[in-house]
Amino acid sequence: MRIASTPDRVYAALMDGPVSDRIANALLRLRGMKPRGTIRGFFAHHRFILLEEKPPRHVVFGLLGKPWHPSGGLVPCEDRRSWLSMIDGEHAAIVIGFNVRPEEGSVVLETETRIHIHDRSSRRKFSLYWFLVRPPSTLLRKRFLHAVKYHAEKQSGVVKPREERVV
Questions:
Q1: Per-residue pLDDT tens digits for 114-123
Q2: Is the CB of residue 45 less than 8 Å from the CB of residue 63?
């Protein structure tokens, strides 16, 4: 997503700006997740581990679990080292990254998710789960990115605050 701002403002909006709205909150609740006001707060609350952070260029979070299971089958990890040591064959190792890069007078914010599941049976279960949750997950990710764009551009003076907009 192209954003008319600086890498520092985009990164700040990503990590500490409010990134949820009514639609995002409804999607999260459908999955049994509690909305949190920031990316940092959301990932921390849902037991994602900060795997790498290089402000203002990128941040990577990780989670171990069985998202296809109603409870999520989360594996508690304290830090990057424990996360890496607990990767096993039957849990999904989920990595979500955000990259901020300057490009032609603006900033491009990208997100990528990678999932590794060694066990064939678990991969089949995840495939069915992903078939069902991929559309709302994609919409949720887009809502997050648009919220970051709005807050970064607002800080840069590109857009007016929502309450001041003329519709």
A1: 999 999 999 9
A2: no
